Amino acid sequence: MSGSLRFPAFYIDRGVFRMKNKISRRQFLQVAGASAAALLLASCSGNSASSVSSSSVASSAASSVAASSEAASSAAASSEATSTVTTTGKTLVVYFSATGTTQGVAQTIADTVGADLFEVVPSDPYTSDDLNWTNNDSRVSREHNDEGLRAVALESTDVDGWDDYDTVFIGYPIWWGIAAWPVDNFVKENDFTGKTVIPFCTAATSGIGDSGNLLEEMTGTGDWKEGERFHGGASESDISSWIDSLGL
After folding, report:
1. Disulfide engineering: 212 pairs with which of 88, 131, 195, 199, CB 3.0-4.6 Å?
2. How far apart are CA 120 and CA 186, in angstroms?
3. CB 186 within 8 A of CB 94
4. Which residues, 6 or more positions from 168, have their beta carbon under 8 angstroms from its beta carbon?
């Protein structure tokens, strides 16, 4: 074979080694030593190649694990970033209700859009006699006739987490063609900057008129939209249709 070592052929004769081609003992030892060295060298070369191959496999595996770990970290970071980006502001429904009609509409709006509710409550609640607008001496009649009496004190104008809301519905009954004045102080006491404000009202016959515009003038802040009037028997579908039209 090309490149292989050649040894003298020998055979066994009566337990004694005899050389087919006679050589000296010294020559035999030289050949044997060279053969052993060659075998040792071949063995070392094989082990070295195996070591290099194992090292390459280990290095490749480590690189694969590192790449997988980096990919997982990137995916987690991407997921967190996406979550942060998709987070939106909250919606609040503020309302004043004298007889419960506006409260019903406010509740339906909140249920439809998943909003929080805040009720505007006068410190001195209105009674049924106070609300008798046909009596010129009733509370609402006197407040209507004297604007100085319309600054109705409220139990609170502070909304927890007010800054977290980016959309605010404001509801009220219509009194003499304008928003019932108990909501005035709430509007005046709060900053609507950066918020979309959507007024709504309840009335038997009157429309929303300029009630929303007048409230906007009182606060001077916020992006106020055109509002809607609902009658006392407004259905959930009517309210939902209006909300859909807003494109929120």
Report:
1. 199
2. 7
3. yes
4. 91, 92, 93, 94, 192, 195, 196, 197, 198, 222
Q: Are 184 and 162 in contact (CB under 8 A)?
A: no
Q: Which of 192, 144, 199 is nearest to 173 (CA)?
A: 199
DSSP string for the chain? -TT------EEEETTEEEESS---HHHHHHHHHHHHHHHHHHHHHHHHHHHHHHHHHHHHHHHHHHHHHHHHHHHHHHHHHHHHHH---EEEEEE--SSSHHHHHHHHHHHHHT-EEEE--BSSPPPTTTT-TTSTTSHHHHHHH-GGG----BS----TTGGGEEEEEEEEEEETTEE-THHHHHHHHS--TT-EEEEEEE-SS---TTHHHHHHHHH--SEEPP-EEE-TT--HHHHHHHHHHHT-
Residues in CB range of 29: below 8 A, 6 or more apart: none
CA separation for the pair 62, 58 (Å, rounded)? 6
CA-based nearest residue to 154, from 190, 203, 130: 190
* Span 235-247, pLDDT tens digits: 999 999 999 999 8
Query: Would you give the end-to-end CA distance of the chain in angstroms?
Result: 87
Q: What residue has token string 């309210």?
A: 239
71-76 average pLDDT score: 42
Could you tell me if 10 and 19 are in contact, meaning their C-beta atoms sit under 8 angstroms apart?
A: yes
Looking at residue 37, its pLDDT comes to: 46
pLDDT in tens, 125-164: 999 999 999 999 999 999 999 999 999 999 999 999 999 9
Q: Which two tokens stand for residue 178?
A: 């304008």
